[in-house]
Amino acid sequence: MKDNPQSGEKHEKADTEFHLEIERRDFLKIGLAITGVIAGGTVLSLISNVGESFAPGAYRKKYPYKPHHSMVIRQDRCIDCKRCTEACVATNRVPDYGWRTTILKRELPESVDQKWDFIPILCNQCNNPPCVRACPTRATYKNKENGIVMMEDKKCIGCKSCMMACPYDARYFNEAKSAIDKCDFCFETRLSKGKTNVACAEACPADVRVFGDLSDPGSRVYKLIHQLQKPVWVLREEVGAKPNIFYMKG
After folding, report:
1. What's the predicted TM-score (pTM) here?
2. Does residue 123 form part of some domain?
3. Total structural domains in the chain?
4. Which of 35, 78, 209, 242 supports an S-S bond with 118, CB 3.0-4.6 Å?
5. DSSP assigned state of 72
């Protein structure tokens, strides 16, 4: 029986349309609007928040982690080269069916300068993590020293309550571990071994991801978040998770 080339083209087109629809749903799931800011929410601009939740003294008093590991993503610099995701997979042994960090993309049909917009995403290491509250066995927890949301595999029963509670869809079930897996800022593979940077940020050729200590006024992360010249925002501010992943342009 001969292969029908037209049939193959139809299947390929259907697969492409399916994946594009999945990407569109993923964008809606994490709350990204057409403008690239928070759907139904406000831009987390430090111009309006200084003196409130992001006043240096008040913020450090409320979340006294030291180091307070955080990341700034300079979103418009991303070129979708995927070196960050490749470095994450290699460093943290992420299976092909899972992910710890990825890049969402969307088409910009009305843009003159570029056709696609790329938004790196990962676990937001929330200060008020819904996943921790949802876990019935306390397998997922907030590290009291550095603020990283972590997993204790032996306590995980695979109920996936934390996956459903996560506002950023940033968890998956690791079959080899029989437990939920997620980004831990490379704590097990790098930070706990004396490294000072995470794999994805170190691998990025465009300096998109800036990792650092939010409790240190001298750190690059602190300076980027507390500057007033450019707006800084978080994803899905309206859910009250208070993420430690911040986004900005440039």
Report:
1. 0.78
2. yes
3. 1
4. 78
5. E
